[in-house]
Amino acid sequence: MSFIPSVSPVRAFVLALGLVAAHSVQAQQAAVKVKTKTSDAAGNTVSKSKVVTPAPVASAPKPVSPLVSSPQVILPAQADGNTTWLTDLSAAQAQAKATKRPILAVFSGSDWCKPCIIYEQEVFAKPEFAAYAKDRLVLAHFDFPRQKRNQPTAAQVKLNEAAAAQLNREGDFPLAVVISPEGKVLAKTGYIAGGPTAFEAYLKKVVPTL
């Protein structure tokens, strides 16, 4: 006894569409005999025929899924080749003490926190801010991404959690913390609109010597 596999209505419809599309493409690519009429120098009508193969029809581009997105890049390690963002609070504190510069510690969620991403784009990644901070601040960055592909190393997770335990127990994002060279928290702020100019004005209010 022979067995005939069953085909669901949906699958049958899809297969039918595929056959129709294939037949349509073959029909478009088939050679066509075309007759043309021209006149010679004596005014006589001359009929000619030639075989024409239509140009292949370009297929439509594949749609890009709106759900596919690239991971956000926030606070590059070296914004201008000279300004470095540290990812270890202890190292930042040691550098601040040695240089007598205040620390700017930034807490972000680079792949889920929209204000964090805007903050980075409008302020921290700008060359103007890098130039301003270069000889004035010790920069530290602690990122808390949620997507698995963006997770930092286990060692970095410990450093981030240690920094948060000291400076961001409330879990605020984004958060910028200004710390004196001696380790005293001077101010905390969230997103500040206005780009580098507005953020620099805020820093000067907190630390007038900047």
Key structural traits:
single chain; 210 residues; alpha/beta; Glutaredoxin; five-stranded mixed β-sheet; two-stranded antiparallel ribbon; 6 helices; disordered N terminus; Thioredoxin domain-containing protein; signal; Thioredoxin-like_sf
Question: Topology of this protein?
Answer:
Elements: H1 9-29, E1 32-39, E2 45-52, E3 85-86, H2 89-99, E4 103-108, H3 114-124, H4 127-133, E5 138-143, H5 154-167, E6 175-179, E7 185-189, H6 195-206
Task: Please outline what is shown here.
The chain has 210 residues and is α/β, with parallel strands linked by helices. It has 6 helices and 7 strands.
Give the topology string: H per helix, E per strand: HEEEHEHHEHEEH
CATH architecture of the domain at 85-206: 3-Layer(aba) Sandwich
Helical residue percent?
A: 25-40%
CATH topology of the domain at 85-206: Glutaredoxin
Query: What amount of the residues lies in strands?
Result: 15-25%
Report mean pLDDT, rounded to a whole number. 76
**Count, helices:** 6
Task: Please tell me about this protein's structure.
With 210 residues, this protein is α/β, with parallel strands linked by helices. It has a domain at 85-206: Glutaredoxin, CATH 3.40.30. Helix content is 36%, strand content 19%. It has helices spanning 9-29, 89-99, 114-124, 127-133, 154-167, 195-206; strands at residues 32-39, 45-52, 85-86, 103-108, 138-143, 175-179, 185-189. The longest helix is centred in the N-terminal third of the chain and has 21 residues, at 9-29. It is globular, with a radius of gyration of 33 Å. It starts with 8 loop residues before the first helix and ends with a helix. Mean pLDDT is 76; it is low at 1-39, 50-74 and 76-81. Pfam families: Thioredoxin_7.
